[in-house]
Amino acid sequence: MNSEYNESPAHKPTPSNPPIGEGLVTAQHCIPFPTYHPILSGIIAGLEPDEDLNMPDWADKYRKLPRESTHEYGDYRVKRTPYMHEPLMCLSPRSPVKNIVVVKPTQIGATDGLGNNFLLYTAHKKPRPCLTILPTVELARRHVKSKMDKSLAAMECMHGIIRDAHGGKKRDESILLKEFPGGFWMFLGANSASAARSVSICNLILDDVDGFVMELGDEGDPIDIIKKRTDAFSAIAKILLMSTPTTLETSRIWAEFLLTDQCYYYVPCPFCDHGQTLQLGGPDTDYGLKWKDNDPDTAQYLCEQCHTLIPEIHKTRMLEQGKWIPTNPKVKLSRGFQLSSFYSPYGWVSWSVMAKEFLDSYKEPRKLKVYYNTRLGLPFEERGQQPEWTLLKNRSEPYKYWYAPEHAGFVTAGVDVQRNRLAVVIKGWGRNEESWLIWWGEVFGDTTDTESTDVWDQLDGLISRPITHALGFELPVLCTAIDSSDNTHVVYNFVRKRSKYIAIKGQSQTGKPILGRPTKQDVNYKGCVIKDGVELWPVGTDTAKRTIYDRLEAETPAHGRIHFTLDAPDDYYRQLTAEKHVTRYDKFGFGHKEWFLPKHKRNEALDCEVYALAAAIKVGLLHMNWDNVYTHHKNLKERKIQESTTPIVPTAKPHNTRQRYPSKYMRR
Ligand SMILES: [Zn+2]
């Protein structure tokens, strides 16, 4: 008998197995060997008489739904939501499945049917450390109070097993903890997920993951942080992810679902027995939800095989006979289940409601998105602002790299720093903020190396390379902006010694100026104070990207037209348009615009364009006296200084904040 997959008998506290003591629970604290050891306890369990219940059978036998949380209180019946049977089997300890991903609409019974059954079963039958994460600690607290506490009270078999605890002597409000012999339930908000830093977890539930914060400060994605907590139990750990999806580009549950075997629930037609998934369809499809004369109360389902209208009364039987079919069967240990409200049990969300809500929402993208997410259980694809790169390429002009067309008055560069390379864009600027791409490319080398300056010397050589102006003379690069977000001190050291370079740092908040006021950075990487510290210039990346995208998309821009050389490769255009400017709606329906970069896409060309624009503003792009610049260029041509390296000194006041302050004399 494989002891690993056997159920242990009911676990009751005994004097030799006391409740766990105070203090932040860690795996070492709460699972004192040999009182509880996952493998050993499995072996012991194998020697004892065993009820041998898998999770669906356990739920049918023991689970009670509390009167306070549902009108269908009392005995839980898996049969009521038959689509839960398979995911529950995957959560059972004897199943080898490790990841269970559920993409769901609202009101399908997943939180109770999967998450809560999983926790209660574990405490009752297979004690293990469990962690549940909800989007915020407030939601976690509400969940414990309204669901878990009431379920415990309603289930006689759980009485005396679970006790409340809290992390640390000082009560930590961000940790909700319940202990039982051999394990615990911990509940956290995703915004305080780092509180689980020192805890080892066997059963992990991530509920409503599309509502999680994307980043936890500098620590990264909370989902990645938390998943690592199961490493110590990797052989038996289970991770359950559930959520209603959001937008296609940003939905995390959808991204996780795509990594699974991607199952859909097939139900048989009561008339022809043909198995099919239930879908919305459309006015022209010969399957799906249909209704007469705009009256949603007449809604029935049209079978895709025999084209008979199926009244909803058949739904219960169809659900009972349904089965999950994977569309990506080569994946074995990660199972994904997608559901819509079409499968909602009879008496919950009806097909008429599905039709009515569709009629109410289909004309308005915002409402339609809610319908897609909360009823169809599908991510919504938004158009979003994203210029079409092939259209830009078709607009390219017959001039070469390292050549500045006639109206390019001065040149700047933007540099994005990656670990193994520097991405560079060199741009010419003219009247009305018109601009020309002069060069795009990369220089390779270890940018983190504080000893070798090889890659930086290459950059210096590149930026010093002469640019031929259409009128015959040469233009220098007047200012180069280098991103200092990574390898900060290496960038500072490089910029410190060179007057035509500036260190910049992106600010992604909306409403920031493209180039803000600089601050002095006086400390090097060893923490020593440096004389004449570098100036760090903040760059409003959101504002700059919006400006660039508006200009790229405008067919005949009155201002700021961007020109491309025929020499620019496809990759430049792809990177320039890699990001999508999308609206994300929060749960209250408020839309927030944000930049979204699809996974595995590169966007350095866009970043470099932003920095080159910031450098142009530093030089004086917004206040330049263009008549003077162009007259100067004509004079240069007339004097036939073909090989001139004379810098074209702009006549506008450069962007220099010191000049904004009156002198002491003026203040008197
Ligand atoms: Zn049929």
Characteristics:
668 residues, alpha/beta, Rossmann fold, Nucleotidyltransferase, domain 5, 3 domains, 11-stranded mixed beta sheet, 8-stranded mixed beta sheet, 27% helix, elongated, disordered N terminus, disordered C terminus, binds zinc ion
What would you note in describing this structure?
- With about 675 residues, the protein is an alpha/beta fold.
- The chain has three domains: about 5-40, no CATH class; about 55-260, 3-Layer(aba) Sandwich (Rossmann fold), CATH 3.40.50.300; about 400-630, Nucleotidyltransferase, domain 5.
- Helices cover about 25% and strands about 25% of the residues.
- Strands 3, 4, 5, 6, 7, 8, 9, 10, 11, 15 and 16 form an eleven-stranded mixed sheet that branches. An eight-stranded mixed sheet has the order 25-26-24-23-18-19-20-27.
- Helix 15 (about 540-555) packs across helix 17 (about 605-620) and helix 16 (about 570-575) crosses helix 17.
- The longest helix is centred in the N-terminal third of the chain and has 18 residues, at about 135-155.
- The protein is elongated and about 95 Å long.
- Bound molecules: zinc ion.
- Zinc ion binds next to loops.
